[in-house]
Amino acid sequence: MLNIELNDLIKQIITTQAESQTIEVKAAHGGTPKRLYDTLSSFSNQDGGGIIVFGLDETQNFKPVGVYDLQDLQKKVTEQCNQMIPQIRAIFTITEYEGVNICSAEIPSIDITNRPCYYAGAGKVKGSYVRVGDADLPMTDYEIYNFESFKSHVHDDERPIDRATLSLLRENDINNFILQMKLNRPGFSKLSENQIYELLSITRNNIPTLASVLNFGIYPQGLLPQLAITAIVVPGETIGDITSDGIRFLDNKRIEGTLSEMLDEAIAFCKRNIKVQTIINPNNGKREDRTEYPINAIREAILNALIHRDYSIYTEGTPIQICFFTNRLEIHSPGSLYGRMTIFDLGKARPDLRNPALATMSEFLLKTENRYSGIPTIRREMKEYNLPEPVFENKRNEFVVTLYNNQHTSNNNEDIDLIRFCKSPKSRKEIAEYLDIKTTSFVTKEYIQPLVDAGKLKLTIPDKPKSKNQKYYSD
């Protein structure tokens, strides 16, 4: 970081009066903060790392108070960095601001194969942290496991289910699957049945795997009760909304069976609960029925959840959720994105496969291509329907796909209220919470950007409009 960049960052922090996902502020005029381990861990464990700024006092509205001793500060911060596993190499920058010395320490992101980064004195379980907004929070057991399983190439869809036996699987379906595999892989014909079962992950050490139970089980939920789908229709825009006569859910169903059966039944549930309108096709002038959401997009979203959800012991008690609201459809998949995949890579980069056995079986059983086309299909279908872009959210313990219908549009009253709300600078997250909308990307596109374009909202960092630390304000 250059001196001028650090000065700009200081101005931004003072203007916004806030820390952020990548910025932590420490006073340090009375000495080096003694416990930086939480922030060192959380910044190292997130893509992009983060910056600790020493010399601003948050308790005095981020007033520049300076650093007690620049050389000693850098030495003692480095000592704390050396107590992390793996060790951290901070990059320091010094500048003078309003007559006092300010120092920043850039904490680099470590490679995912070395995560989690943790404080050696506390150990991996208690010393690993994750950044959430401007807070450093202890990693959950699941988050630690997510890193460890990726490093060790552990695939939970291949784990044996102790109570399962071959008698609980559909023999004809397995035989048809093996026959299809033999047609595509002639070498399989030379193997014994037991060898084929093991190589195709139907069994592991002669015990049926999770993948085979979910694909060939006579009743999979008898062994894995919560590996199902729950589907609801809410008469409003938030959970808890009720109708005038007190009805909480307009439709409510638990969907069980094999992956194929759950996919079919889930789509049937969605078709039953989405509106259908008649339109005039502009290309041929004919009247056509069009569903509220594109069925192909819904199918791909549910299919992705079934195949790519986390099936570890940490999430096997959580079903996939389909939630219809008056303005949107949400599909919640247990477990965050796997491996190196990020939200920005979806549909563009080849992902690391969390469940390779399920993915292979799905090519035959669910008629999928397994060519990473699901996300592009969802985007394309929503665009063809002239609906807002789909929103993808990677949360700490789940991945959420949100499809908005054409009922959610901003109006003049909302614009006026939002402008008033932004008399003091507000972040995208704060605006989304104010509007009671979960997805910040949708809020940015549909609410914030139109007001920015109209000159009604201004940016606190105008030269970096896409900055994570961006805030918006009105005159």
From TrEMBL:
PANTHER family: GLPR-RELATED TRANSCRIPTIONAL REPRESSOR, SCHLAFEN ALBA-2 DOMAIN-CONTAINING PROTEIN. Pfam families: Fic-like_C (PF21247), HATPase_c_4 (PF13749), SLFN_AlbA_2 (PF04326). This is AAA family ATPase. Residues 19-139 form the Schlafen AlbA-2 domain. It comes from the Bacteria. InterPro entries: Fic-like_C, RecG_C_sf, Schlafen_AlbA_2_dom, Schlafen_AlbA_2_dom_sf. Residues 422-472 form the Filamentation induced by cAMP protein Fic-like C-terminal domain.
